[in-house]
Amino acid sequence: MADSLVKMRNITKNFPGVLALDEVDFTLRPGEIHAVMGENGAGKSTLVKVLTGAEEFESGEIYLNDASTPIVNRSPQEAQQRGISTVYQEVNLCGNLSVAENLFLGRQPRRFGMVNWQQMNRQARAVLRGIGLDINVEKPLSGYSIAVQQMIAIGRAIDISAKVLILDEPTSSLNEQEVVRLFELMQKLQAGGMGIVFITHFLDQVYQICDQITVLRNGALVGQYAVADMPRRDLVAAMLGRTFDDLATIERRPSAVAKKAGVPVVSAKQLGVAQGVKPFDLDINQGEVVGLAGLLGSGRTEVARVIFGADIPETGSLEVKGQPARPNPLASMQAGMAFCPEDRKAEGCILELSVQDNIILAEQTKRGAFHLIPKSEQDKIARKYVELLQIKVPSLDTPVKQLSGGNQQKVILARWLATNPDLLILDEPTRGIDVGTKTEIQRLCVELADDGMAVLFISSEIDEMLRSCDRIGIMRDLKKVGELVGSEMSTAAIMSKIAGDDFQEGELNA
Amino acid sequence: MNSDSKNRPQDFRVADLNKGFFGGVFAKFYGNNLLVLITFAMLVLIYSAASFIFRDQNFGSLNSIFSMLHSWPHLVVIAAGMTMVLISGGIDISVGGQCAMYCMMFAYFMQEDGWNVNSYVMIAVVLATGLVFGFAQGVLVAYFKIQPFIVTLAGMFFARGLTAIISEKTIGIKNEDFLGLAAVKFTLPFGGYTDGGGVYQAPYIYLYAILALLGVVVLYIVMTWTGFGRSVYAVGGSEQSAMLMGLNPKRIVLQVFVIQGLMTAFGSFLFCLSLPGGAVEKAVAFEMNAIAAAVIGGALLTGGVGNILGSLAGTLIQLTILKIITSVGTLSSGWGPISTAAMMAFFIAMQSVLTSGRRKRK
Q1: Band of pLDDT at residue B7, cut at 50, 70 and 90
Q2: pLDDT tens sequence across A315-354
Q3: pTM of the predicted structure, to 2 decimals
Q4: Would you state the pLDDT for residue A346?
Q5: Phi then psi for A33, rounded to 5 degrees?
Q6: Which letter, b or e, does each residue of B286-312 get, where b requires 16 or more Cβ atoms within 10 Å of its Cβ?
């Protein structure tokens, strides 16, 4: 067997104004799951795109299977013919076609020159059974969950005899069981001698499944490490290029509850939504970061939506600074609320608009369409927040779609900060962004609260909430089941609340 | 972790859905395929009801079914082509203009006191013109990345203009070969009826109606059982994905427009056989009938979904309603478009219900 499947040497690539890859080396051996990690803009996707021919590169060589002559892939198809397949986070298959067609598009089994549907369906079932998927292959692909679609995409790659499989953030839209299934499949393929490149942000998953890690930073190679010899804190340090102590500076808020006297910014009493979240009580005070923890579907987002007026409450009452609130997003904005939604692409950024337009959007809406913010003031606002949040943009006129995920998130944050809110609602502000930006956003929350703002912080990562929240409300099955304050807050306590009382702390440690 | 409110199936064995009594029936018909069935069911229902109500006019006889095909053979063919274009994610609004142009070409160039071109040569010339026209539109859409709506809007004006340049007169076709071809008909030895005067009326079908049906069947076969046909569905579903799966979307879109040009020329030829003559104002707004037929037949304007046979049902439903209006006799012709509007609204609502149902399960 070949010693290496892919050997990339001294790869250099320039984007206009940016050195995207600077003499990067990368080696993938057979039977290896190899994580490629780095902050946003580190060059992970560029490296993969160079390998698969989606991007060109200026200098360097790529060798396959220990061959002595370098190759260049001019298109993803060419890479596929050489045995390199990619499965993207947003699955690149056709939802309107059946599962079987997606597996065999462009290479359908024929009889008398015509597509042989029966044989195609039979072969499709066989291919999918081979990867442990027993589904109806005649149904349209769009009827299946993203997780299944991803496995189908992997099935297609395997069937085209892929030797190298690149998984680009495959787990960010999967739930836990789905991730487990994907990992089982990856291990099975690994045992068969396939080389898998795994791009992810999740440290846990890297330690769970990967053998090797290649770390990139700002387009340069930091190093390649065996997972077993690489402690987590060293990995984070390698990715961030700073010492681990930077992360520690915001561990736990200094003063547990800096509650200032007076009316709460928001006070919900038995607030509930038909078919939605069950009636709950929640006060958020000035200068306080309140977290909402819970599993997927537990109602965290729903609480935020009903407070912001995006959902109409059926029961209970909501007071904003002592005044009864009208359930209407615009009224909420005018009352001093700001809501950064979870799905930044669908509900947050207007991708085609410039950074500046995105930042002033909420403030403009709040003032009304007939009170146009003067150009000079727009400029000032945008500049101020780009600086404050350290958003990395070439210019204020850059369309938001050209920014990385972390910077897009910061633009949304800037948009809402520009409205000078009294209450800032952040729904999963750190999902899918790099560790550095995550830390910055967490620190910002704390700083904003110290300046007197009230923050409602929703996150799936308990560590992150422990670090930044004064108080954490726990959600389970669309019900608020409890609240933890100050010293009560610990990973174990939160987990046991989320899971229900039968969940013992001992199990956690086991 | 897309959204807290989204439901995800927790197990992968969706195959369970297909068990039970209806499992087998619906196993092959999901979502929009089901729509085609509904369209056919509606066609049968409307036609049967009309046959019963107008039984004294022999509405349900074979003669009457064939006469529908005789009136609009071009819609049968062009709606099928339109469906293919919609599946690919495009649209072609030049078909009405092209149709007028091809009819005018037949009428003008075959005049005995003019060019007096042989009718078979003329047929070949028109079909070739269709190919060229489709090729030109296809290149603009596929390789110059111009919106198909804009390209074919230009195509429509161009064809209408060219029609008027050829001749602004209304010209009837007198070429004997051509009229001979138009008169070829096949009489069936069964299925006739005896009219009020006691005379037996044998059902007959003209050659051009058979050719129209043949055109639909051939296109259906191409779209269902050839690699090209499936690629058209793939490109309509997601051009990006199709490309990453190794297809060449540009070439496929070009091929779609070339075939559509050919289908339009072929349909226009059949139209000329059924109504031999050319005029500037021929087939005005006809592209809309074709789009309506395709939509009623289950095609989505967003691409990727549609059925060639569905467009035939869509055409026949429109024709049935026109026939009902003539059968009643006292109804305003305005009810034709109104019922088309109602049906399109119904089918678009159905599509929306079925596709959103599918999205929820995701």
Answers
A1: very low
A2: 888 888 888 888 888 888 888 888 888 776 666 777 778 8
A3: 0.72
A4: 66
A5: -105, 120
A6: bbebbbbbbbbbbbbeebbbbbbbbbb
Query: Which member of A77, A300, A342 has the closest CB to residue B246?
Result: A77
Domains and CATH numbers, chain B: 36-46+72-185+199-361 (1.10.3470)
Q: Which domains does chain A show, CATH number per domain?
A: 6-240 (3.40.50.300), 269-336+422-499 (3.40.50.300), 345-420 (no CATH)
Q: Sorting pLDDT into bands at 50, 70 and 90, what band is B233?
A: very high
In whole angstroms, give the CA distance from residue B225 to residue A108.
10
Question: Residues B130-156: what's their mean pLDDT?
Answer: 96
| pLDDT tens digit sequence for A255-278 | 544 455 577 888 888 988 877 788
Distance to chain B for A124, nearest Cα, Å: 14
What confidence tens digit (pLDDT) does each residue in B167-201 have?
999 999 999 999 999 999 998 887 778 777 778 88
Strand runs (DSSP E) across A406-453, as ranges?
423-427
Q: Is the pLDDT of residue A463 over 90?
A: no
Of A105, A297, A300, the CB nearest to B234: A105
d(CA A261, CA B291): 67
Q: Find the closest chain B residue to A148 by CA distance.
A: B12
The secondary structure element, H or E, covering residue A445 is helix A435-450
d(CA B158, CA B98): 9
The alpha carbon of residue A259 is apart from the nearest alpha carbon of chain B, in Å, by: 30
Six-digit token pair at A335? 């009352």
Asked if A300 reaches chain B (Cβ–Cβ under 8 Å), the answer is yes
For residue B28, what is the nearest residue in chain A, using CA coordinates?
A138
A52 to chain B: nearest residue by CA?
A: B244
CA atoms of A220 and A291, how far apart (whole Å): 37
A115 and B246: CB-CB below 8 Å? Answer: no
Q: How far out from the chain centre does Cα B263 lie?
A: 10
Strand partners, A456: A290, A425
Tokens at A342, concatenated: 């979870």
Q: According to the per-residue pLDDT averaged within each range, which of B138-142, B188-192, B200-204 is highest?
A: B138-142
Nearest to A290, CA basis, from A304, A311, A310, A276:
A304
| Number of neighbouring beta carbons within 10 Å of residue B274 | 17
Nearest to A109 by CA among B234, B256, B230, B307: B230
Q: How confident is the model at residue A479 (pLDDT cuts 50, 70, 90)?
A: confident
Query: φ, ψ for residue B204 (rounded to 5)?
Result: -135, 155
Q: Tell me the shortest Cα–Cα distance from B15 to chain A, in angstroms.
A: 5
Q: Least CA distance to A475: which residue of chain B?
A: B4
